[in-house]
Structures are given as C-alpha cells and as structure tokens.
Predict the 3D structure of the following.
Amino acid sequence: MNIKVGIFWFAENTFVFKVQSVIDLKPDQLGFIDSTLQHQVEWEDNNIYQLFGLMLDNTDYYNFPRDRVVFNVDQNTSYVYLDKSLFKKHIVKEIKANFSLLDTNI
C-alpha cells in the first residue's frame, strides 16, 4: 500500500497539491506521520502552482484555502485536515484520488 501525506490548496478552481510517501518519514511520539512540506515554502519559494498551470506570482500561500493529510501508524488511518470551504464533492474526490484514499470515507 502506498500511503501518502502532504499539503494542498484549492486555487482558481484548481486542486494544487504535493505528496510524500510515508515510507520516507518517521512517526512522531503520538504515532502521526506528517509531511515535511511547508505551505509557505512550496507556494512562495517553489511556486508549486505553476506545475498546475496557474500564474499566481506574487500571491501569498494563505490567500487560498489550504490544508493537509497526515497518517497515524497506531490506528492505520489517514486524517484529512480540511477547511470547511473545501468540503465539496468534487474537491473531496480530488483529495481521495491524489492521496490514494479512494476506498476511504471523508
């Protein structure tokens, strides 16, 4: 199973995301694996939005709804932290597809 964690945004009607495999990461003392990715760095320094065809230069990472997916090894469960404005069928479908959560209820 390829369990993924990472960060995401929904900007200009586009799902922008970056994932990491949990195989490459270690759990914290509570059993959670979180990605090492940072919203600010990926948006403002690495211009991740350009990989998704967006031209949002000089925008701040916090101007768009964003959140993350983490994994708990003790519970063998992924947790999706999701801004309530993103809790829409088409966005949840994108999250499930891109974070390998297709058989998961969100």
